[in-house]
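FAQ: What does a ligand-bound record look like?

Like this one, built around pyridoxal-5'-phosphate:
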Amino acid sequence: MSVTVAATPPGLDARTLRRDFPALSQKVHGRQLVYLDNAASSQTPRPVIDALVRYYEHDRSNVHRGVHELSQRATDKYESARIRLQRFLNASQPEEIVWTKGATESINLVASSWGRTHVGAGDDVIVSAMEHHSNIVPWQILCQDRGANLRVIPMNEAGELQLDRLDGLLSPRARIVAVTQVSNALGTVNPVREIAARAHAAGAVCLVDGAQAAPHMPVDVQDLGCDFFALSGHKMCGPTGIGALFARRALLEEMPPYQSGGDMISSVSFEKTEYNELPYKFEAGTPMIAGAIGMGAAVDYLQSIGMDRIASYESELLLYAVERLDAIQGLRPIGTARSRAGVVSFEIESIHPADLGTILDRQGIALRVGHHCAEPVMRFYGVSATTRASLAFYNTRADFDALADAIEIAKEIFA
Ligand code: PLP
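The answer part, i.e. the structure of the complex:
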């Protein structure tokens, strides 16, 4: 018997999946909630909520320290979540996954620990023009401390990186290229595999900010060839306050601790401290135990749907969203890259985004207005803020129909 594998995964049923998310069924200001603020934070499915409740009701205790049953259970679940995330990212071993508070802390860990030992006076740190502040400011602080230079890969009007300019930036002084895989302000998907390869060819390492990629597409850190990959749990159906850093083992081995205290040591005396093995060397103090356990459940949930299916469903939905919004007179899209995921950003002629956001909220539509922690992007487009609708696999075309109708109502109010 021969088995045929479908070239394209079968579509997903967003209407059925929505039922897994209790928050989505509520009304806001008397209207059915339309949740389009997923780039800021996604909603939480029932299996993740259940995993958190189970931990608090049943296994609540500290990890790695107790010999008693509850501590053993909590430790097993905490470590099993790490293995699940390792597989989700296709890292080669669990020791390469460090739990953090989120993408911000992951990047700070690298800037502080790796940066302190690898970036010196006159060296270059390269970021891109479309980074979130959390992939700018830690590097800026590092560069100020070390007397290094922050260099920026420019972008074009569509919001695509001008990679022909990268080689010019990759001098022998380049130490790291830190770049987002998906822009939270524009939705641009960057070719991070190619960027990592070019960084390596120049003797630099590559950090990928995957905060907006991991919720929307399959991620294989070995295939990407990156040295570091940062993500946030709360953007991918996990709890708040948990995230992770993938880092190649060889790098983690030689990096100094980021924070210090309990759990990151193997022995302490007043004369000398020996650090713990990986990844605990980078997990000082009591970690976000419930968060990690919830994250394990989130990864299981996403994998039960399939990241390929999520990616193909969402890219079709994004096309619909763009088409629907582009048809609105007076709407200026911000970011029109050929390869995009998750996000549509725009401004509406003569309505300030803050006013638009308030009017949309009164109609039950939750989205984000502001600079999206990407002020350099706003400056590039000459705006102080945009309106950003960001989707997840539980959104439907009806959500964007509701958004388009609500924008027309706002236009009438401001006419
Ligand atoms: N990087 C990108 C691209 C983001 O969109 C965000 C959050 O919006 C972050 C980093 C920071 O994530 P967190 O606030 O979860 O640490």
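Follow-up question: can I read anything off the structure? Yes, for example: The longest strand covers residues 174-180.
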